[in-house]
Specification:
nucleus; AMY1; c-Myc-binding protein; mainly alpha; 2 domains; transmembrane helix; coiled coil
Length: 108
């Protein structure tokens, strides 16, 4: 566990080093400039420039409607899986009533 803390500390030191050297600011400015150029070069300007920036910087992630649709799908599939598992248990129990036990099969 001390290795994890040590590497975390090294990451933090490296981040501070980059910050002091101005690398993070420069990187941020370069990325922002590139996205602004992409926005400028768009033939049809988007209705929401902020959403365009977020999307191109990777901040937006998956759209909220998509996330909600996926969550609903997962919920429905989970319910279906639960029902099928319950049905499977019931059918196995019923099947065991009709299958001979190993002792009965050996007696024949």
């Amino acid at each position: 566990m001390s290795y994890y803390r040590g590497s975390e500390s090294k990451r933090e030191q490296f981040r501070r080093y980059l910050e002091k050297a101005g690398v993070l600011d420069t990187l941020t400015n370069v990325l922002l400039f590139a996205v602004l150029v992409a926005l400028y070069e768009e033939t049809e300007k988007p209705n929401n420039a902020l959403d365009f920036l977020k999307h191109h910087l990777g901040v937006a992630g998956v759209e909220t409607a998509d996330v909600e649709t996926l969550r609903l799908g997962v919920s429905e599939l989970q319910q279906k899986c639960d029902l099928l598992m319950e049905e499977n248990k019931e059918l196995r129990k019923r099947l065991l009533q009709y299958e001979p036990t190993p002792e009965d099969g050996a007696a024949e």
